[in-house]
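Standup notes, structure subgroup. Blocker cleared on the S-adenosyl-L-homocysteine input:
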Amino acid sequence: MENGKKKDIKSYTKKELEAALLAMGDKAFRAGQIYGWLHQKQAESFDEMTNLSKELRERLSQVYRVDSLKQVQVQESRLDGTKKYLFELHDGHIIESVLMKYRHGNSVCISSQVGCRMGCRFCASTIDGLERNLTPAELLDQIYQIQKLTGERVSHIVVMGSGEPMDNYENLVKFIHMISDKDGLHISQRNITVSTCGLVPQIKRLAEEGLPITLALSLHAPNDEIRKTLMPVANAYQMDEVLDACQYYFAQTGRRITFEYSLVSGVNDSEEAAKELAGRIAHMNCHVNLIPVNPIKERNYKESQKKEILKFQNKLEKCGINVTIRREMGRDIDGACGQLRRSYREKQKKQ
Ligand code: SAH
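Run returned:
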C-alpha cells in the first residue's frame, strides 16, 4: 500500500482504534497502548512503540501511517516572545500556528483549514479560497509539535488561526474530545475557545454538544449593512439570527460569549456604531474584544487611530458593555491570520 493510501491512525478516537484492533484479530487493550503512544507520548512512528511486538508494529505500519507536521519556519517576536510556526502537512500544504505566552500559561492559536472560503474582506487567509479541511490529527499535531519544540506545556487553545472551524465541524468536535482526553494531553475544555464568523446552524449544533468551551463570534459591525461590506457570510445569516444563536449557546452552556470586533478606520469605528452595537447586545451575557485591524497589503483597509479606539471603548462601556482591547501579540511577525503563510508562499513562487 502506498503511503498516501494508508489510513491516518492519529485521527482515530480510542473507540475507533479499539474497533480497528479487534477487526485485525488483536486484543482491545492494545488500542489503549497505541492511543497513549500517539497522544500522550506523541510518538511519530510505530517503531517507537516498544511495548508492542515487532510483528504487530509491522502489521500496523502496513495499513496505517502516523501523520506529523514538519516545522518549515519559525519567527519569534522581539516585542513579546510570541512565536509563529509554519508547518508542512504530509501532502505539502503549509499551515501556520502561533504560540502566545501569557501569565496564565501558554496559549496556542491553531488553524482549522488550509485556506478559507468565507471571504472576509480584511483577512489574508481567504484570498486564495479553501484548499481543504484539516484532519483531527493535523489539528492535534499543531499543539503536539509546539510542545515538543518548546519543551513547555500548552494550557490554552484558541481555534482562531486560518480557516473557519465551523466549516470543518466534525473534525473540530473530534479534536476537542481528543485534546481534552485524560489519555491524551488532557487540556481542559474550559481553556478552549472556538472563533466563528457566524455559521448559525453549526453554532446551534455546538451548543448541544455539552462542551464547556468558549464561543467567540466575529461580529465586526453594528448592523447588517456594514457587516455585509466586510463579511460575505452576512448575506447568508442576518445579524439577528446570529445573535439569537449566541443567546442559545449561552442558554445551553452557561458560557459567556466573546464578540470580536476588528476596528477598521472609517468603516465600523464611529461612536454611532458603538452606540448601535451596544443597543443590540446589551441584553446579552457577553463581552467585546476590540482588535485594531491588521492591514494586509492586498486590501486598503486601515486600522483605527488609538484615539478612535478609546472613544469606541468608552462609548460601549458607558452603555454597560464589558470591553477589552486585544493586546496585540506578534505584530512585528506577520501577526494576523494567514499573513505569514501567504508571504512564505509568495517567496516560494518567485524561486
Ligand atoms: N474564521 C474564524 C476564525 C479565524 S479568524 C472567524 O472568522 O472567527 C480570527 C479572528 O481574526 C476573526 O475575528 C477574524 O475576523 C479576525 N481577523 C482576520 N484577519 C484580520 C486582520 N487582518 N485584522 C484584524 N482581525 C482579523
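Discussed briefly. The chain has a mean pLDDT of 94.
Next: hand off to the docking folks.
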